[in-house]
Amino acid sequence: MIPITDIEKRTPETKAYAYNSLRNIITTRLHENDLHNAQKYILIAKRQFSHSTDYRFKIHVIFLEYLLEYATKPEKLDYYSKIVALMSTLQEIGEFREIESMRSDLDRVIESKQDLKESLERSFAENTSFTV
Description:
mainly alpha
């Protein structure tokens, strides 16, 4: 099922189910701090982009990639900025359920770094009306 084989033979419902499964696998890997496998499934998901017209899937995979980078790279502000930009765009188009899902994932990843989160929130409060 993952990655999707013979994609041209799959119904839109089957593809949507597979894409949602990929998102869930990546999210679970991140929550369990299994960063190697999270990266592996992100790469698999990104290979599906050329076959997908589901922008929510694509945006969420990009978000999860940024979240992984946030968790593993020293340039946390760069990735946090990218996450906030994605969420701000979703807010503009009314995708509030996606935002809530992303907020939950973000909070779980940075929960143990509360001091960093507060510092970043203060920084963004000056530049945007969007809060995480």
